Structure formats: structure tokens, C-alpha cells
Automatic annotation (TrEMBL):
InterPro entries found in the cross-reference section: Aminoglycoside_PTrfase, Kinase-like_dom_sf, Pseudomonas-type_ThrB
Protein name: Hydroxylysine kinase
Alphabetized GO MF terms: hydroxylysine kinase activity
Catalytic activity, reaction form: (5R)-5-hydroxy-L-lysine + GTP = (5R)-5-phosphooxy-L-lysine + GDP + H(+)
Record domain Aminoglycoside phosphotransferase: where: 90-305
Lineage of producing organism: Eukaryota, Metazoa, Spiralia, Lophotrochozoa, Mollusca
One cellular component term from this protein's GO annotations in UniProt: cytoplasm
Reported function: Catalyzes the GTP-dependent phosphorylation of 5-hydroxy-L-lysine.
Region (Disordered): 1-21
Amino acid sequence: MSYVKPSEDDSLSQTTSKDEDQNSEFMTMLEQFQQIKPTLPPTFVKNETLRLYGMTVMEYQELDSYYDINYHITVDQAVNNYINDFHPAGYVLKVLNAKDSQNPALIEAMHLVLDHLRRKCFPVQAFVSNVYGDLWSSETVVNEFGTKKTYIVSMLTYLEGKTMTSKQINPSSLYNIGIYAGLLQNALEDFDNDFLRKRENQWDLLQLPKLVKFAPVLEHKKEFQLLKTIMTDFKTEVVPVLEHLTKVLIHGDLNDGNILVKEVMGRTNIPEEKTTYDIVGIIDFLDMQYSYTIVDIAILIAHMSAECTCMAPIDVGGHVLAGYLTVKELTHNERGILRLLICSRLAQLVILNEFTLLMDPHNKSVLSHLENYKRVIWKFCQTSKTELYRRWNEVLRDYNIENVFSIL
């Protein structure tokens, strides 16, 4: 078969057609994702908590969330006719985003996972049944603009602790987080769920190459070529290796906002940067996915590297791994792709956060993190695998862990 090189006009026509198709797909997607985050009337929290759960709200505060809306509520103990075990710390009233509200099986799966972890003695939230005896309800809400939307509403117990977002991240905290991540992975290894196996989630790191459809968001950003390179390298260097690993259920979003901590008591006059925090729980299991444990640890390192200010971002992974390696080992294949997986998560975060800002320019969760992701992705990509792993080996040596990463 002979190959005829297309003329410049043909090439231009094909490129233009491809760009037009991509832009058309992007505009359709943008339209679909408009108003994905719930918009609720001011009376919603008190009225719906009383109607659905028989509770009188005393105080409530909106919690930081990406697509959903969550409220920490405290209620009048004297008026909880439907609640057998009153929870003094309060509850979380959760309103699922419009897209996920179309999949009630997601809430059912989350309930099963939390029960599974509770049986293994993990401190996790518990669902609270409503007055109808159900774990969730589908509610049509009319917002202040007169628009009707249907959202899944549920309630969980409030898990006490402060998120890492509000605390100084330091080496001891990173070490403890690494241990906890390994223990969580071990606890999830024997959990199975058909819905989660089939679910497609844009936050699944394995879906990274598909994010090329978001190109119109990024083409004028200085990170554009860098992100394209990462996506290409992911397909050629990561995907072939993952095929040799075993899929299990992972949390999928181990970030500073989903990790709850408390200060280790009995220590006084300790500066904030040296304060030790114990991990008291993990929240937000809605990005659960069947993937690989090395993906989960890469996600964790990416987020901790972006938020830590007490050391160079590229050193953070060494402290996380020092804790993680007390629970689990890394295989040769996993070690080989870890750096690129971290870069891939940061690329995913930059792309999807830029897209979210188009829909919701005032999204506090995005605005507080996006610049950190951009700063750190350059750091990782400008540091060779050899140099990164050399630095991690030095950190691990301080924990009496020798020669985890081979240096070529």
C-alpha cells in the first residue's frame, strides 16, 4: 500500500476539522456541567433537616467541598424523635452534586464501604436513616432563581478532627499519613462492589489521556505543552506497566482536605512546625475506584507536596513513603512509575480545576489550591527521576530504610 503525503491544504483542513470537533465536544461538556454544584435556598438546611430527619438545627456551617455541598450541623437533643443514638459532635447534611445525584448506587456503595471499614475498627462516618428509614432521599429543590434541580440528600455522623488543610504539615505528620494510607489499603483489599467496578469517574487517574477533550481550557496557559507531554508519557510509560499490577478498591482522593488529624497531647511549648498530629480518620469516599495501590499513594504524595511549606516539595514523598513502607512494600514496577504518576495526578488537578473555574469562578476549594498545583508540577517535571529518587533515598535513610530506589 502506497502512502500519499497530504497536501498542506488537506492537513490544514484535517487539523481545523479536528479542532472544531474538539471545541464542539468541549462546549457540550461545559453546558452539561453548568450548575453541577447544588444551589440551595437559605432556608434549606433547617427546613429539610426537620422534615427529613425530625431534628431542629441549632447551628450549621458549610464545609469546604469541590462539587457537593456539606453542612456541619448541631441539633437540639430534645427533638430527635427518629434518632436512636444521639451524636454530640453533630452531623453532616450532604447534598450530592447534580451529576452524581443521578446514581443512587454511589451512595449505597459508600454506605457499604464505611460499614466494611468500621468492622475493621477504622474510625469512619456512619449514615443516619431519615424519617422514612432510608439512607438517602431524592429531593427537588427550587433555588432563589426559580430553577428546579433534583439532588440526593443524606446525613452522616460528624467525625471529629481538623483537616490537614488547617494544620502545618511536617515530617512526623507525613510519616503518620503514610502509615495510615497503607493500613487503609490493606483494609480495602477484600472489599468488592459491582457498581464501583463499572463506574467511570473523571477523577480516576487511569482516565488521564481522555482529558485531552479539555484542551480549549488550557491552550493559552503556559502549562499547556507540559500537560500534553505528561499525558503522552502516561500512555507510553505508565499504562503498559499497570497491566502487570492487580486492581483493588482505593480511596481515590487522599488529599489534605480529606484527612482528619488531632494534636498529640501531653506536649507543651512545641512550635507549630514541630507539632505531631495523629490521623483520626479519612472522609469523602465518593471518588472510590478500582485502580492500583501505587496510584493511591501517588495521589497522596502529589497533594501533600502541593500543600507542605516546611520543606522542598520534592522531598515530601520521602517522608510519606517512610511511613507507608512500614506497612506495605513497593514492587520494582511500582517504584519505576511513581514519579510519573505523581506528575500525572498534578496534571489532572490543573486541568480539571481550570475547567471548574470556568463553571464556578468563585469556587473557594479550587482557588485555594490551583496555584500550588501549578507551582509543584513544574518542580516535579524539572527534577529527573534519578535526582528525585536520590533525594527520597536520603530521607528514607534517616528512618533507617536503605536503598529503596535504584539510582542509575
